[in-house]
Amino acid sequence: MAILPILEVPDPRLKTISQPVTVFDAELKQLVEDMFETMYAAPGIGLAAIQVGVPKRVLVIDLQEPEEEDGEPVRDPRIFINPEILDPSEELASYNEGCLSVPDQFAEVERPATIHARWQDTDGGTHEEDMDGLLATCLQHEMDHLEGILFIDHLSRLKRQMVLKKLQKERKLKGVAA
Ligand code: GNR
Ligand code: NI
């Protein structure tokens, strides 16, 4: 188990197109475990492998609200390998999105409100599900990462520049090299 460093803009590796998983082995399961540990530590509700520098079509999501049972956090881990979206709705939904690779910045992004998704698990088994709400939004955000796209790429150039300027300013204030 390991918490991996998360790549942040403007790291060019975030623009990589990730490659399909073809081998469902122990190394893949280890990557998924490390991604969960990294996501929970951040904390975030989703993570794509490229955000930890691995250009593979692997996503993890956990939408569980922070909650404890017997002193242990309640978890709802979901794994998506080689995900595909079928039948996106014409109806759009807007959500105030954030991204661990664009830390502490948020902006409204519109995406199809409902989707039908297909994906594989770590054993190569195929799954399908209709999704709406935050799960549909989050899966689409994560799938964008597999194509090298960040949520700020959905904004107007002006809004994107404003977000990146604000991020730069906040990094300077924190004493982190921008
Ligand atoms: O933690 C995250 N929160 C979030 C909020 C709204 C829409 C998408 C997300 S995903 C993000 C984690 C992340 O960067 N995943 O790629
Ligand atoms: Ni993200």
What does this structure look like?
The chain is an alpha+beta fold. It has one domain: Peptide deformylase (Peptide Deformylase, Alpha-Beta Complex), CATH 3.90.45. The chain is 26% helix and 29% strand. It contains three helices and nine strands. It has helices at residues 26-41, 133-146, 157-173; strands at 46-48, 58-61, 68-69, 72-73, 78-86, 92-99, 102-112, 115-120, 126-131. The strands form three sheets. A five-stranded antiparallel β-sheet has the order 1-2-5-8-9, sandwiched between helices. Strands 3-4 form a two-stranded antiparallel sheet. Strands 6-7 form a two-stranded antiparallel ribbon. A hairpin with a 2-residue loop joins strand 6 (92-99) and strand 7. The longest helix has 17 residues, at 157-173. The two termini are 29 Å apart.
Name the features:
about 180 residues, alpha+beta, Peptide Deformylase, 5-stranded antiparallel sheet, two-stranded antiparallel ribbon, about 30% strand, binds ligand GNR, binds nickel (II) ion
SSE diagram, text form:
Blueprint: H1 26-41, E1 46-48, E2 58-61, E3 68-69, E4 72-73, E5 78-86, E6 92-99, E7 102-112, E8 115-120, E9 126-131, H2 133-146, H3 157-173
Antiparallel strand pairs: 1-2, 2-5, 3-4, 5-8, 6-7, 8-9
Bound molecules: ligand GNR and nickel (II) ion.
Largest sheet: 5 strands, antiparallel
Helix and strand succession? HEEEEEEEEEHH
Fraction in beta strands? 25-35%
Any low-confidence stretches, pLDDT <50, length ≥5?
none
Q: What is the CA-CA span between the terminal residues?
A: 29 Å
Task: Give the total of beta strands.
Answer: 9
Radius of gyration: 16 Å
Number of helices: 3
Q: Estimate percent helicity.
A: 25-40%
Task: Tell me the CATH architecture.
Answer: Alpha-Beta Complex
Mean pLDDT: 97
CATH domain fold name? Peptide Deformylase
Looking at CATH, the homologous superfamily is Peptide deformylase
Distinct small molecules bound, one entry per kind: ligand GNR, nickel (II) ion
Number of domains: 1
Strand order, sheet with most strands: 1-2-5-8-9
Envelope shape: globular
CATH class: Alpha Beta
Supply the helix-strand structural class.
Answer: alpha+beta
